[in-house]
Fold this sequence. Notes:
Elements: H1 4-9, H2 20-29, E1 38-39, E2 43-45, E3 51-53, E4 58-59, E5 63-66, E6 71-73, E7 78-79, E8 84-86, E9 88-89, H3 94-98, E10 103-104, E11 107-109, E12 114-115, E13 120-121, E14 126-127, E15 132-133, E16 138-139, E17 147-150, E18 155-159
Parallel strand pairs: 1-4, 2-5, 3-6, 4-7, 5-8, 6-11, 7-12, 8-13, 11-14, 12-15, 13-16, 15-17
Antiparallel strand pairs: 9-10, 17-18
Amino acid sequence: MATEREKMLAGELYDALDEPGRRALLEELLGRGGDTAWIEPPFFCDYGSNIELGERVFFNFNCVVLDVCLVEIGSFTLFGPAVQIYTATHPMSAAERRRGLESGRPVIIGSDVWVGGGAIILPGVTIGDRAVIGAGSVVTKDIPAGVFAAGSPCQVLRTIDE
């Protein structure tokens, strides 16, 4: 019986999620969801344990998740390359920053969301189910379900017909 890699190289149908070594690492790193996630390296995070994924979440190459607070991502959500998710934030006061103080706010992303490459999602943002975020967007506020939103700052441009 051919391995999944052998099938891939032969041009046959294969299971793209079958990589035991990477799977074990993701299960150890992530708070939840590493058993079905697909994350292309390099992938950067603060802790990993504060990242909770639904089923079959995909991160393309070079994504960053600053998970000083909870980052919750629903099932079947896709991230393009170089997406950045920030929960960490710093005080506006220079005196507080000099003292090394920082805080965080959770980021919640629904199921079936697609975030285009290079997008940045700021602390405290919630993105609703089935939303699509345009490439290069800077998401500074909540985005409702079922919309296409883009820009800097990101804003709703239209609803998505299902």
